Amino acid sequence: MPPRKRFEASAIKNKEKREQVVRARKKEKGQEKLKRRLEIAKAEKNDPEAKKARLEKNVPRTLDNMREFNPTMITADPQASSSKSATTDENKDRGPDPESLLDISLDPFSSSLSPPTTSLIDPFKPPKVLLTTSPRATKVSYEFCEELLSVIPGAEFVRRGKGMRNVEVGRIAGWAAGRGYGCVIVVNEDRKVVDALTLIHLPSGPSAYFKLTSIVPSSKISSHARPTPHNPELILNNFVTRLGHSVGRMFQTLFPLMPHFQGRQVVTLHNQRDFLFFRRHRYAFRSTEKAALQEIGPRFTLKLKWLKKGLPAVRNLGEAPPGVMFDEGGESEEDEGVEDAAKDGRDSVEKGETGEEDRDEDEEMDDGEDREEKEEERKKKAKKVVRPPKDDEYEWMWKPELETTRRTFFL
Amino acid sequence: MPTFYAGDELGQTKRIRWTSPDQSLVETIFEREGAKSAMQVMDLRSGMLLTGFADGNASLFSLQDSESGKPTLIQEWKESRLRSQHRYIRATINEKGAYTCTSSGHVRFVPLAKNIGETEETIPSQVTSIPTRLCDFRLSPSGNSFAYGGEEVDLSVWDVDTAFTARGSPAETTVAGQKRKSKSSDLLPGELWRAKNVPNDFLNLRQPVHITSLLYLRETTSGSNHLATGTYSGSVRSYDTRAGKRPVTDWKSLAQKGGIKLMEKGHREHELFIADMGSELAAVDLRNGRKLYTYKGLSGSISAIALTSSRLLASTSLDRLLRIHTTTDLPLKDGGAVEEKGQILDQTFLKSIPTVICWDGEVNSGDDLVSQRRDDGEADDDIWTNMPAIEEGSDLETTGKHSKRRKASHVPGSDQ
Q1: A169 within domain boundaries
Q2: What is the pTM of this model?
Q3: Which of B69, B145, B311, B384 is at a distance of 20 to 30 A from B176, taking alpha carbons?
């Protein structure tokens, strides 16, 4: 008699009978699997080597470890940077490519992250950060900004102007750069939901736009810890590519160089599959090996959408056209600078102060000083005019066509 | 197997030999000592490499007869008039010498040194001044004229010899805010032709003049120059100096984001490549101003492009990648769609931001993709000839609805 073929349960038209057969088959299959696993567990109980071998062999394939090769990855093993060559033992400990390291050391963040030893920068002093919202922000934005103020030491919040006093982000960045700020953060709100964050490194540094999701304020975190004004420690995980390094260093510039270890606060930015997870914890060592964590909050997720090379562009299409001019001497430069400082002072209406008011305040404060010194100070201030560019250049922008597979990541 | 030379923001010169996908050899052939200064302009012609840096220095190298593969320095000089907020916008080499131009309008012509090592003191370079706030400057293919354009500086064509001899000293400045009246008698000494602004828009407002890139499309001996400009608003305009001052064609909104950053003329007739301020690189048909195809997979703004004679295009972008693209033929009919689109063959990671790239001009035997395509065409012909011919009246001739209709109209007993 020919062997009976297994019949498909889907061929049974009667629903009750069909369900019965399927259930029985599934149960049988489950029991067979359990039997197999119990046998393996029994064999491995006395043989830990076998267990180790099995675990080493059965590494699950995930999107993270099946990641598509990105040529911009900066790895400790430069030989592996070509997808076809195999890694050998002799190449493993060579370290990242020196040219990549040189490029990183000369990027716009290097002046704040690795200042020359002769500079008088206090490593504990937090860099000035200007925090603001999108125009016509509501309570949601202000609450999130309050949280950010506690995270970033040195952050100052300023409300966005209304109506005529609403100035473009590019102009705000230029103004802030001239006033000694290190970074501008703009919290964007859409329909009563905070949805994006723009980080603009000053004076001429890159601007990054992140989409914000999964925001959990500290009040919503059960048994959350209380934040203190100590400088936090920073943990940046899994920034692998050159773009990842730029983004990581950008976040590094927000915080002071030296943390207060006394405060036991740690801020973590963990990158996984191009999503940056922000967490803030307080740690306490229970023993020399183990540490307990208590989350302070807030908790949010960021995703980079674009990274522009300079400040956000300001397209001043309405300005009066200057005539055809010839460039001759060097004197016109400084005059231009002073003129524009005065003009910017009048234009920068975010704080509601005009340039004249500013000067009046200065004069009140400097009652005892000489007029000459005031003039010099004014000139110094005037020389630090930072103009936003006329057009944007993108170092990287996300486009749907870039994600050719689910395993493609850029950070 | 084309070879490209690229310069980057750290002032290094790199040679990239591309042989096939995934196999490109990148080597740094020259590095400047001291403070790193970005390379802003580069030109390569007949074995001579001209580079200009952000600090005002410019160097001329010879790439031939080098045993170590390193370039030999022929001349170097510094543009002393260059100030911090301005930059080099173009460097070109000719048989006569090297021309460099800055955005402040300082043009310098350095004649080629007969011997290696002669500096500025021994060979005087000729300088001239053209208006400031320039964005692009080009020397004509023959070297007899040059053109420039910039922010509120309209396209202008000058004669090279008159420019350097007629004006040793810069012209008198105009008072800021006063517009120059565009009369033909108002041309500066040395200037041959100046463009006129496009007519006011539908609100009768003056259209701002902001040329971001320009190139010579054609230069005829009779003095008619055809030029193309890319503007800040994203339009591409073509001019004919003989036909008039207004642009002959004005194609708007060719740039997706921002203005047109780069323009290069392709080797095929009517082919133009444009790069915008976003990450778009597109091929444009000059007959009708339509974008034929855009390259997919670019993630950063293009900083420079270089064309080879073998239908390959190399582009460098701000995401530190050098990409090799294929270019495809234009449609035969004006207004038709392109059959095949250009593809990205390969990308190489250059560890610093590349700013300029040039092709070395050497055509190798294995390069010619055109001959390869001809072989493919022959293979196609074989396929067609080997296909069985269908006779009339057979079943295969009609399909679907037609066959039903035939069957319906088929009258029994009347077929032959």
Answers
A1: yes
A2: 0.83
A3: B145
